[in-house]
């Protein structure tokens, strides 16, 4: 028994198994959890800082061109914005509840909540799709494209658009990667094939809606809005677009975490992937909490300064 | 064996993280919805410049709720809260210094009602790089759609 006191601090002597979920460079699950969480918070700090760049730009241009911002904000659909806010708040709730379910090792409840979170994310994107569609149709486009009559933006222009070209390149890349994985016998060939098909679907959808650009304006006139409204819409599309990109990434993350949860990876000593995914999702919600009033709810008094 | 027993008591390495009640989460959710309704309601009241301030304050209250309860900052290692607070402070510095600069520019300039461009008041000269209102487009015929060239945009 005296020998035991000498080896008090050697975990191996006490028969502590190193569970599969515990990385070899960590001593205890708690240490792993703390380290992962700290890293996640450092990442969240970075996300906040880079969104702040856009918010500062917003602050500057709003103070310089209050009329344009008021009129631009008036063109946005507040109801859709409010719906999106509530949808994201609810998804934040389900994300927090799913972490709790994983802490209590209630796997089925956790899966249901993850599916709800993903569902809310999709609902958000669907509402965004309709919003953007209205903007395109009304000529409320970012920067130099603002107010441009539709006949000038046609299929040929869309096809030569460098972003479209780069986007299309993703299809052969994913397709070849899928084939290569399949031939190598590596994992994930099925997922890559699915990704290829999804990419083709998205490309089809984007080019299909591109014909909205080709629909001529009824009278060929630009919308009757204050001079620098295109600045507002530049900021609107970049801020909400970057946010929507984060939502899409979040959907991917939740699908992956859902799969891991169904597989039974998580337990009360290993749930930080779920926790960190939820932290990311809360950040996405946080950004929208600020975006909504700043973009959609600008006070607008036609013809007057405010 | 007593040393084993002490060791298990003191630290078995398990996470033992605080588990919040579901009721708390639902409560915070309804508070957030309430604040959202408040934000929309206040937006329809004309308060002038105060509208932005009020909107940001309410949004910050919502953000504080999300951070403290949904993101567990209240029960976490204090360092995580420190990371968030210092980030917000640096964002504040970013805002303050930038707006202080841009807000005091153009003392001697205004926006020309004719061209919409920033112009120097004393000389009437257009400020370099200032955006100008583009020329109005003529109405186009249906058949001439493809032939028309786009006007200069900048």
Which word captures the global form of chain B?
A: elongated
What oligomerization state is this entry in? heterodimer
- Series of H and E elements of chain B: HHHHEE
Order of helices and strands of chain A: HHHHHHHHHHH
Q: Please tell me what the overall shape of chain A is.
A: globular
- Give the overall average pLDDT of chain A: 83
Give the C-alpha Rg of chain B.
Answer: 29 Å
Beginning-to-end CA distance, first to last residue of chain A: 81 Å
Kindly provide the radius of gyration of chain A, computed on alpha-carbon positions and rounded to a whole number of angstroms. 25 Å
Count the E strands of chain B.
2
What's the tally of helices of chain B?
A: 4
Count helical runs of chain A.
11
What is the strand tally of chain A? 0
Poorly predicted tracts of residues of chain B: 1-10, 139-154
Secondary-structure-based class of chain B equals mainly alpha
Largest sheet of chain B: 2 strands, antiparallel
Question: How would you describe the overall organization of this protein?
Answer:
The complex is a heterodimer of chains A (306) and B (154). The radius of gyration of chain A is 25 Å and the shape is globular. Chain A starts with a helix and ends in a 10-residue tail after the last helix. With 306 residues, chain A is mainly alpha-helical. Chain A is built from 11 helices and no strands. Chain A has helices spanning 2-6, 29-64, 66-75, 78-103, 107-138, 155-160, 162-184, 189-209, 211-214, 229-263, 272-296. Chain B is mainly alpha-helical. Chain B has 4 helices and 2 strands; from the N terminus they run H-H-H-H-E-E. Chain B has a two-stranded antiparallel sheet. In chain B, a hairpin with a 6-residue loop joins strand 1 (109-111) and strand 2. Classes of the chains: A mainly alpha (306), B mainly alpha (154). Chains A and B meet through helix 2, helix 4 and helix 11 of A and helix 1, helix 2, helix 3 and helix 4 of B.
